[in-house]
Amino acid sequence: MNYKNKKNTLAFALILGTFSALGPFTVDMYLASLPQLAVFFGTSAAAVQASLTTSLLGLGLGQLIMGPLSDIYGRRPPLLLSMILYILSSIGCAMAPDIQWFIALRFIQGIAASAGLVISRAIVRDRFSGVEMTKFISLLTMISNVAPLISPTAGSAVMSYSSWVGVFIFLGGLGIALTGITVWGMRESLSVQQRVPSSPRTLMKNYNSLFRKRTFMGYALVNGILFAGVFAYVAGTPFIYQNIYGVSPQLFSILFASNGLAIIIGAQFVKVLAGRVTESRLFLLGLFMAFISSAAILIIVLVHGTLLAMFISIFLFASSIGIIGPISFTLAMESQGHTAGSASAVLGTMQFALGAVASPLVGMAGENSALPFGIIIFSTSVFSVITYVVLIKGGTINSGVKNRYDSNT
């Protein structure tokens, strides 16, 4: 496949978007079957929910493993191995004899799915740079964000014809399809000359180098902090919309799906303006939108505002994530080169780690209070602005040199 040919750009994005979507499908597709799982295994809802936690943990930690492996051995071998592991773990989940085995296999499934997330982003860095990378990541974001919109519905559809077992058989089939794509539809994007030595010392050196890069960590933290806000509204809006505003489950599903649409719109906005407006200006616009919309959310919570006002504010916050995500990725990854896998792992793990901290805090005041939600959402935008000022803008000032992204700021 000639990735430089513009005719192949959409096909390439669809392929990588499918690998990126494996994470959301793994997490979301079986949500409708949680009650059925509790009955099948004769266990509590909390025990079944632990399988969701372990899969998220696998998705987060797995990126720290798969990213460096792709820097050492190239992109295709770890991706192929992970897809085979994904197939086996999915079938294992379908055949699990008890809840303990199921939880353990979900963790392995999460690790395997993480390869699709982290390696697809590393491949983008291998093939594109500058404005072209920004445009491609925006396109990839739009494609991959379709997955959270359709995966719960797909899971419900599968369950209407089978049981929870059918969901994991379906996921195993998806793994088989991605294995075929890896073998026959993808070329290696990282040459042997660009790969890093395979030693623990080199691995730690690469991570240490990334953590010491002030600007890289600035963009990674801003992205991760704001995505913690995404995890907060994922955890909080089911209770806020249904318990506080009294919407039906059907209306809630529409409102929730609109958040994914907002991210897609934000990414499309970046794709259209990339090359016409500097990345730094788009990044600042996204930060401004996040700050204003999150402040509005907190105010609406405090004054017990209307459902429409809350929905619009959350929609705008999600749109700002669609803007910041592609831009922060481009600006963070631009100078990483042969360590793109490790850099992509840091970016991805930061999102899951900070999201894991934020999401439980939403329920601190109970199911009928939105105050923690409002405070957390607003705090993410405040901390992201502080991070930008201290690490990104501060790093530029201290270095005495403006990079090309800040030249027109």
TrEMBL record:
InterPro entries linked: Efflux_drug-R_Bcr/CmlA, MFS, MFS_dom, MFS_trans_sf, Sugar_transporter_CS
Superkingdom, natural source: Bacteria
Gene3D superfamilies: Multidrug resistance protein D
Protein name: Bcr/CflA family efflux transporter
NCBIfam families for the chain: efflux_Bcr_CflA
Organism: Paenibacillus chibensis
Primary location: membrane
Subcellular location as annotated: Cell membrane
Membrane topology: Multi-pass membrane protein
